[in-house]
Amino acid sequence: MSAPPTTSAERRIRLAGVLVISGAIIEVVTLMIRGPLSFLAFMFVAGALITAGMVTYLFSLIGPGPRAATRSDVSKPPSAPPPQ
Amino acid sequence: MVPPIVWIAAIAGAFMALLLYVIGKPALLRDPGGKLLAFLVLFLAPGAAILVGAGQHLELSTRTDFCLSCHVMEKYGKSLMIDDSEYIPAVHYQNNYVPRKNACYTCHTDYAMYGTLRSKMHGLKHVLVQYFGTVPDTVELYSPYKNRTCLHCHEGARKFEEASGHKEDEWLMTQLKSEERSCLEAGCHDAAHEVTEFADVPFWKGAKR
Predict the structure, then answer these.
(1) Chain A partners within 8 Å of B30 (Cβ)
(2) Is the pLDDT of residue B203 over 70?
(3) Partner residue opposite B19 with nearest CB, options A20, A47, A66
(4) Is the pLDDT of residue B9 over 90?
(5) What are phi and psi for residue B82, nearest 5 degrees?
(6) pLDDT of chain A along its 84 residues, tens only?
(7) Exposed, middle or buried by CB within 10 Å (0-12, 13-18, 19+), for B23?
(8) Measured distance CA(A12)–CA(A29) in Å, rounded
(9) How far is CA A55 from CA B17, B36, B39, B46, B69, in A?
(10) Distance (Å, rounded) from C-alpha B88 to C-alpha B191?
């Protein structure tokens, strides 16, 4: 049993993986069944799920990481010199 | 020799296993190696899967059985089996002038630049109308049939260039090639998919195997 994800980035990675694997399974099924309906299922279900997974993964890269900076970590900017 | 489908299945299976590993341990994103693995299985491999799947589906959509799987196209498929040596679609289909498994696509795609893309967009519209719209009683072409499609195969062919009907008028070939006159105009090759006149037409039974 895997440990539950602790950060939002890890949760997004897991969600992205689930979306991609769901889309990939549907894609494989559509490739085994010939016909216009399987073509539509590939485009609008499998394609959408895989794309959503890829986008979710990209969001996990730009989102807050496992060591997100907090306000206390940020040092104060140097005070401005007194006017002369 | 191992068939390509086995290699594709093996690669897909390996990526699936890696994907499950990433789902099980999302914390590996903290390491550089894990980041690379995540990029591979959550971005590159899914992108490749979409491209390969789209290519495979587009290839399948060029097949005659794909076109004829819609009810509205059944009678057009039936017209390929009419026993008449003057009936253009039947002559092409029955004599293997076009590949039988891609018969519809061969004569109904646009061979110009972006022609395939245009044909695919039209085909997608047909599929959407089939399932989500109202199928019209009469199926019509988007634009008049272009000679270019015929000439894609026939131009330069001896039987075509030396046909008596094509040699009668010295300007005919020029007019055909410049689309001033249509191959399908009245009096020439005007018998194509008249699907309302099937009542007393004999049909070819097919080649003996």
Answers:
(1) 66
(2) yes
(3) A20
(4) no
(5) -65, 135
(6) 455 656 788 888 899 999 999 999 999 999 888 888 898 999 999 999 999 999 999 988 886 655 544 455 455 555 566 666
(7) buried
(8) 26
(9) 21, 16, 12, 11, 35
(10) 6
> Which residue's entry shows tokens 């897909």?
B12
Measuring CA to CA, which residue among A75, A84, A67, A55 is closest to residue A8? Answer: A67
Q: Report pLDDT for A4.
A: 61
What type of residue is A54?
A: M
Average pLDDT, integer, range B160-170: 82
Q: Does B51 touch chain A (CB under 8 A)?
A: no
B25 has a chain A CB within 8 A of its CB:
yes
State both tokens at B79: 């017209």
Report the distance separating Cα B193 and Cα A66, nearest Å. Answer: 65
Task: Round to whole Å and give the CA distance between B22 and A2.
Answer: 11
Apex CA A55: angle with CA A11 and CA B22, to 5°?
A: 45
Q: What is the residue type of B129?
A: V
ipTM of the predicted structure?
0.75
